[in-house]
Amino acid sequence: MKKGASFFSFAQDIDLKEAMSKMAAAGYDGVELVLGSIGEITMDTPDKDLERIKTMAEDFGLEIPSVGTWLLWDYNIVSPDAEEREYCRVVLRKQLDIAAALGADTILAVPGYCGSNFVSGKPLVSYDDAYERAKETFSIVAEHAEKVKVNIGLENVWNKFLLSPLEMRNLIDEIGSDYVGAYFDVGNIMYIGYPQHWIEILGSRIKKIHFCDYRCSQAGLGAFVDLMAGDVPFKEVMKSLKKIGYDDYITYEMLPNYADYPYQSLISGIHSLNTILEEAE
């Protein structure tokens, strides 16, 4: 498996060149870039700049396996507002195009939220409506994913929605596209379940994996800690990944907790990531 570093770990306006140089020096194989409202990758970034960013990564010896976006927190895929839902589809198609231009094979998508502690000023969405609206949007956008040959990975996030691996599996199966699957985060799931169970239930539907760690005796965002400092059962996770035949990127994502040292968590985390992967061999 290859090791990736996620730009969700940084502020949106992080200097891409500097960050890539740090990640390459630390020993990562690839980086997950992120579409935002500010920074070097936005909805208005021209193709020539995307080509420059792709070349920059190549010059550092880095691949770009996936592309995320901050915008699907600002706009809710399952909103009761039809115009907002349509704009989310615009974002997803743009995200797919950006991923294709950068050479990535997967995008990370928040599958909407019934409610979220991260977002204020948004109406609550009933669970059943959220399910049907998510299915509708991803069924529509799957056509574009198939066209550009880029996967859509639905991530398990703290969105008070898709709280069971059976639900996520069923939603993916009902959408019915080989280009729509799961982007599974082993740390995000710790407050409601066990990552090894989710991995084996989702199986081949998993397109990409996020690694982070979570300390269950704490609460909230402060419970996300450096790798091996929390309660994620990484040995069981690796057994389950091996069982389903997963052999793609493990991308380390950490909240930007080190304000004065934005790269530190990922630089120090590569050693833990190496240990986890090497012991699993």
Overview of this protein structure:
By secondary structure, the protein is of the alpha/beta class. The protein has one domain (3-280): Divalent-metal-dependent TIM barrel enzymes (TIM Barrel). It is built from nine helices and ten strands. The protein has helices at 16-26, 47-59, 71-74, 82-102, 127-148, 165-175, 195-202, 234-244, 264-280, and strands at residues 3-6, 30-35, 63-69, 106-109, 151-155, 180-185, 206-211, 213-214, 224-225, 250-252. The strands form two sheets. It has an eight-stranded parallel beta barrel with strand order 1-2-3-4-5-6-7-10, surrounded by seven helices. Helix 5 crosses helix 6 and helix 8 (234-244) crosses helix 9. It is globular, with a radius of gyration of 18 Å.
Give the structure's gist in a few sentences.
This protein has helices spanning 16-26, 47-59, 71-74, 82-102, 127-148, 165-175, 195-202, 234-244, 264-280, and strands spanning 3-6, 30-35, 63-69, 106-109, 151-155, 180-185, 206-211, 213-214, 224-225, 250-252. It has 281 residues and is α/β, with parallel strands linked by helices.
